[in-house]
Design a protein that fits this description.
Length: 339
């Protein structure tokens, strides 16, 4: 966004945007609830009318307490940190998607864990609530222990394990569990489909290569081709497939829809070391030498050769430049000539 230095404009934007959210989530309901409970102390000589009035206050505060859970929605902004990591660390898009998926799952479970403890605390009788805490060894324990039992329960529901050691004991908790089951089913269905899609994308090239090899092997065995020849053909098919795949990737990167300037900039970064390290180009001192290298990258073609195949001979016209990317090239001189 734009940097705004005017306090009036900042205040106007805040009132239009986050003010309502901050007001609703900043009501000190716990402090007010505590003060009302102190006022309801039976040792004080309060009249019955005053006691009924305090009970009305408690009912209102119970309605306002869930507003604090809205603060948890701010956790969604934490997912933006992965965009920063992508720009700084430059991790793979597939890895980034997996990290976002895991983070979203953890934040969702955390949100429902907080909601579960709130429902448990708000709609359970005090003595029953104490029994529940003692049964799970969290009574008079730090808040982290209480959060952990809630986080554990949400995980058992989301993963459909359901050990049964933590269950809904009243109508409000059972309604919450029903909502939790529906949400967990939808979330895990989404996660499983996303993982399957990621796995399919990552193994797509390997599956295509294996299918190509299977077709070739089937035809060779149908024609009773010797085993040694079959192995050579399979090696060649695998090597040629990888070469074609790299060529397609380069064509996608150097898309003709990109402006020529951007294509030259990309070309100077991919495969430029292969051409730039060639001695014939390494000695160039001209101001446009980098432009020449990038132009050569954009116009290079991938050619594959089998073992012991002649790449060039004295009878060939010298109208092209060969740069060995993978493999070994052997130069054989005519008899009687030194290298």
């Amino acid at each position: 966004g734009n940097y705004v230095d005017d306090w009036r404009q900042c205040a106007k934007l805040y009132v239009k945007g986050r003010l309502t959210f901050d007001v609703l989530t900043s009501i000190p309901t716990s402090w007010a609830f505590y003060e009302v409970l102190l006022a309801c102390d039976p040792q004080t000589n309060e009249s019955a009318d005053h006691s009924r009035g305090y009970m009305d206050y408690i009912k209102v505060l119970r309605v306002l307490k869930p507003l604090r859970l809205i603060r948890l929605l701010r956790l969604v902004k934490m997912l933006k940190i992965f965009d920063v990591f992508e720009r700084i660390i430059r991790i793979s898009p597939a890895v980034l998607r997996i990290c976002k998926l895991i983070a979203a799952l953890v934040l969702t479970i955390h949100f429902f864990a907080c909601c579960f403890w709130f429902v448990k605390e708000a709609f359970t009788q005090e003595d029953e609530f104490i029994v529940f805490q003692e049964a799970n060894n969290v009574y008079m324990q730090p808040l982290t222990e209480k959060w952990l039992i809630s986080f554990y329960f949400i995980n058992t529901v989301f993963t459909t394990v359901g050990f049964g050691d933590v269950t809904g004991t009243n109508a409000a908790e059972r309604l919450f569990c029903i909502l939790l089951m529906w949400t967990g089913t939808a979330i895990f269905a989404t996660i499983i489909s996303e993982i399957q899609r990621l796995a399919a994308e990552m193994s797509e090239a390997t599956q295509e290569r294996d299918e190509e090899v299977k077709k070739v092997v089937h035809l060779l065995r149908k024609k009773n081709v010797p085993r040694w020849l079959e192995q050579d053909v399979v090696k060649w098919v695998e090597f040629d497939f990888e070469s074609e795949r790299r060529k397609e990737e380069r064509a996608e990167i150097l898309n003709e829809r990109l402006p020529l300037q951007l294509r030259h900039a990309i070309a100077s970064n991919i495969n430029s070391e292969l051409i730039g390290n060639a001695w014939i180009f390494g000695e160039l001192q001209h101001v446009n030498s980098q432009h020449l290298v990038s132009a050569l990258v954009m116009n290079t073609q991938t050619v594959t050769f089998t073992d012991k195949m002649v790449v060039a001979s004295p009878n060939h016209v010298c109208d092209r430049l060969f740069i060995v990317d993978v493999g070994t090239l052997i130069v054989t001189l005519p008899a009687g000539k030194d290298g």
